[in-house]
Design goal:
With 277 residues, the protein is mostly helical. The protein has helices at residues 2-16, 20-34, 72-81, 84-104, 108-112, 115-129, 139-164, 180-183, 187-197, 211-224, 236-242, 264-268, and strands spanning 55-56, 70-71. It has a two-stranded parallel ribbon. α1 runs antiparallel to α2 and α7 crosses α11 (236-242). It starts with a helix and ends in a 9-residue tail after the last helix.
């Protein structure tokens, strides 16, 4: 069912539409529907090796009441906070699943299938309708975003490991730092509040969202009206994919002999990437 929902629309739009933007939107929407098929009764795909369910980079937010697949970042934090030695086999399987995804698709996931990418592109469309000029991120600002991105991933992993060794619980309630990267991800409050509003999930979850998570969501929507794909610039999934970028089977390439240095690729790129291999 997932393959039908995700693959067939992509094949059809590739066959009958020459518009690049149309192909991207249809692909994003089909995958968004595919990872949320749990609403109609499809459960999470689970194996003995991955007891929480199949995890692909940024697949379905784990805070979705009905989800098909789970967010890989959530699972990394979950297994690390359970103790490295106790959950080592699951971490190995998770790493292998990541490796397959990163090497085969790479940042194609970010540009074509990520649910948060879909919402950011929607905010860009709204910005254009409102005729709000977007801000081109400067190279220096890109460096700052890169530092923040990898620092967030490092801190999230370290805190999860500390929780796993019970080193922090003596000084701070674990609930205050549990799943640290999820606490600053806009998908968490968006999924929880959205399901509560649609009566898909119990409303109790929406009453316990930390204030900083709400602030992150509001900042996410506000920044998306001025900067193209702001969260992609600090996303932990993007940080992990970045380690495998040059080995990915799917990537952008340009013919250096035909390049006229016009800057069109830089101006059209939603995350202001200058270098194209």
């Amino acid at each position: 069912v997932i393959l039908i929902v995700t693959i067939i629309p992509v094949i059809v739009v590739r066959r009958f539409s020459r518009s690049f933007n149309t192909q991207r939107v249809v692909t994003q929407l089909s995958f968004f529907v595919g990872i949320n098929l749990g609403v109609i009764g499809l459960g999470t795909l689970k194996t003995s090796s991955i007891p929480m369910g199949i995890a692909f980079p940024g697949t379905a937010c784990n805070y979705l009441f009905y989800n098909v697949g789970n967010c890989g970042v959530y699972q990394v934090q979950h297994f690390l906070s359970g103790g490295i030695f106790e959950t080592f086999p699951y971490l190995i399987m998770l790493f292998l699943a990541f490796l397959v995804m990163f090497v085969t698709i790479g940042k194609g996931w970010c540009g074509w299938t990520c649910p948060l990418g879909l919402f950011q592109d929607l905010m860009t469309s709204i910005r254009k309708k409102l005729r709000i000029n977007h801000h081109h991120v400067t190279p220096f600002q890109r460096e700052i975003f890169a530092v923040v991105k990898y620092a967030m991933l490092f801190i999230g992993i370290v805190l999860s490991v500390i929780i796993g060794f019970n080193l922090m619980s003596y000084y701070l309630p674990i609930g205050d730092i549990y799943r640290p990267l999820c606490q600053v991800c806009p998908a968490y409050p968006m999924a929880t509040l959205g399901q509560s509003f649609l009566s898909i999930a119990p409303r109790i979850g929406s009453r316990h969202i930390p204030i900083w998570s709400i602030a992150t969501m509001l900042l996410f929507f506000g920044a998306s009206l001025k900067i193209r794909r702001p969260f992609c610039r600090i996303c932990s999934i993007g940080a992990m994919i970045g380690f495998f970028y040059k080995t990915s089977a799917l990537s952008l390439h340009k013919d250096g002999m035909k390049c006229t240095k016009c800057g069109m690729c830089y101006r059209s790129c939603p995350v202001d990437i200058i270098e194209v291999m």
